[in-house]
Amino acid sequence: MSRAELKKVVVVEKIISGHMTNAEGAASLGLTCRQVIRLKKKYRTEGGAAALIHRNRGKKPAHALTDEMKERVAALYRQQYAGSNNCHFAELLTERDQLELSPSSVRRILIAKGIKQIKQRRRSKAHQPRERRSQAGALWQIDATPYAWLEDRALGFALHAAIDDATGTIVGAIFRPNESREGYSLVMQQGLKKYGIPLGLYSDRHTIFRSPNETLTIEQELAGETKPLSEFGKAMDELCITHIKALTPQAKGRIERLWGTLQDRLVIELRLLGVNTMEEANKALPALVLKHNRKFAVKPKKDESAYMKLDSTTRLEYVFTTREKRTLGHGHTLSYANKLYTFAKPTACRFDAKTVVEVRQTLTGEVVVWHDGTTITLVEVEKPVKPKQQKKKASSASPRKTASTYSWKATMKPQRIKRSTNKNQFQEAMYSQHNSYADVTW
Question: pTM, whole model, 2 decimals?
Fold first, then answer.
């Protein structure tokens, strides 16, 4: 008997023996007087204290899981769903095996079978949470994380993604071999085409997002110089998106928590789909992102959207580019990446020689000139080949001939002239010695 049942027996026996009234017994048991009277009747007619034991004691509940069901659940976890957490495992059983089980039931079954969670949860540090933005599109958070998404079936690669701060919706995601400007650009293009232009973007301080020379000196600020932007930053500036660089990971905690969720769930989903390459993972990713958004996205505080409409004339492939200045030569030619280009349509636009233009290269490698919000297509031309001039080989110099009367030692050794007291005699001697050097034939 349980402690509660033993207490009932003691109180009922005291009431029957006259040491306690029905009202006092009801107060001590937390019951009504009518319930106490029923307990007294059951005690007298059905065999004493045994009558107060619960009737289901020792019986198996009607809704209890069978042993065969428990064995099947444990086998499915070992064979297919190993590594998934209890909530995700229960969802997968419902979705793929038509087994309606709660996460707590799944947890009890796994613990009873001696199966522990591979990923142990640890207590995180306390950080004051930042309140979500009130409107969808007010702020996006963007980041990338390298991970073994296909476990041991392939090498690890990086997932680039952006999430809306107000709703938790993944607005864009793509797998790339490494964290790169190309991956972030493709994620932004996905979100911009589907949802519109957000008011702000939150990222870390990677050099993809900021220039190493971003800090200006006081003299440069007084001179009116603007901060240099990275190629990605220039695209954000062109789209009028306020770009914020976080100083700590906790500042963009929304997307940092997203990585924990995706690393826990996405690995299992890709394994169940039989994905073995990064290309196959990118094909399966849109459906998995849609499934994630249906489960985890929340309603914003305000129904009004903060998204700006993307102009239909805006071609995003020419926004997310590399940009460099080049000087046009005669005939509208310019040099870029060791190649020579000219206008595909010479009559498209007229420029003077030595005009400085902006050259943009897209993610696909297309090179164009950007002028007044439009593109001028370029075509590659062959560089003129300069004829190689053959250098004349230097001939060996003929040996020098000297006069037969030339005496090296006698001629080159200067004679010592004694300074005479007679000035005229001394000058004549110096003049004659000078003439002797001039007669030498070299």
Answer: 0.69
